[in-house]
Amino acid sequence: MAEARASNEDIFMCPICLDLLKDPVTLNCGHNYCLGCIKGCWDQEDLKGVYSCPQCRQTFTPRPVLNKNNIVAELVDQMRKTRIQTTARVAFSTGLEVGVECDVCTGRKLKAVKSCLECLLSYCDTHLKAHNELIGRKHTVIDATGQLQERICSRHKKVFEIFCRTDQSCICYLCMVDDHKGHDTVTAAAERTDKQKQLGKSKMTLQQRIQEREKELQELRKAVETLKSSAQTAVEESERMFTEMMRSIERRRSEVTELIRAQEKAEVSRAEGLLKRLEQEIAELKRRDAEMKQLLQIEDDIHFLKTFSSVSDPPQSKNLSCITVSQSLSFDAVAESVSTLKKLLEDLCKQDIMKIPAAGWSYSCVVINVFSLLILLIFGRSS
């Protein structure tokens, strides 16, 4: 089927451009050509005044008037549509992106290397050479592209060569005297040059902005790293100082405990001595009381009188004021002082820490202030 389709396509191929006929015309000898192709050949034979068929070499004098063969044109149009649909189905079924193919190749399509803006066809190396030999270098040829129709004016079928600045659109030269008459128009090349200059300026501005943003990014990253390092240093320093404070407080707590215990021991020892002396005095007084009780019970007057002198005089009573326990034995004042110190320390910590975001203090400064005042309060009150 592929061979049959290729054979059918050959019937409608132009012998000059080797592609499907475009605006086909039929010569008196029966051979078909593209209207543009045969005109190009006969334009070169105008000097001779004799015009020939490129295939059979039959000559014609004068130059024949060429008319479009509508029947052949319709058949070629159907053939072209079939080719496009077949190519689309193959691309869709394979899922592969097909490059620009040569529009002249039959059967297996070769990759196109150039596209002609006059013929609106893409050519492989072989057919490009044939195109150039027949047409010469008159046609505008560009790198192969599958978007040829986008370069052609849909109304006049001419290549876009003009740019309308008024409407900001690409137009052909016929549009200049039609819809765009009186508009600000320049060649596409001139507009591209102007747009390139604008693009160059925009690119420089963009690059400058990128450099500025990259610099700001580096500075911000550096600031973040500095902040992290500063915070880590502050944490380590705070930990060290708080550890020192806790150790100092622990030492001071032990010292205060030992001091309280020493004072307790001294006062208790003194009190125990006083207790012993009081107990002895009470025992002596009780003994005298018993003797007086016995004396009162004696009936012998002489014996009573002789014994009275040794019993009637009570023993010397000691000064009771020296027996009173010292008020220092009450340690309520110590507990009150420690409680006051605790409250002051908590208030100080709260005040200084709240100043960190407002005044921009470093953690180390706060810790040093708290540590210094704490030592001052502890040792100052202890002294």
UniProtKB/TrEMBL annotation:
Annotated InterPro entries: E3_ubiq-ligase_TRIM/RNF, TRIM8/14/16/25/29/45/65_CC, Znf_B-box, Znf_RING, Znf_RING/FYVE/PHD, Znf_RING_CS
Domain RING-type span(s) in chain numbering: 14-57
The B box-type domain, residue ranges: 148-188
Record has Membrane as a keyword: yes
Ranges annotated as spanning the membrane: 360-379
Stored Pfam families: TRIM_CC, zf-B_box, zf-C3HC4_4
CDD domains: Bbox2_TRIM16-like
Protein name as catalogued: E3 ubiquitin/ISG15 ligase TRIM25-like
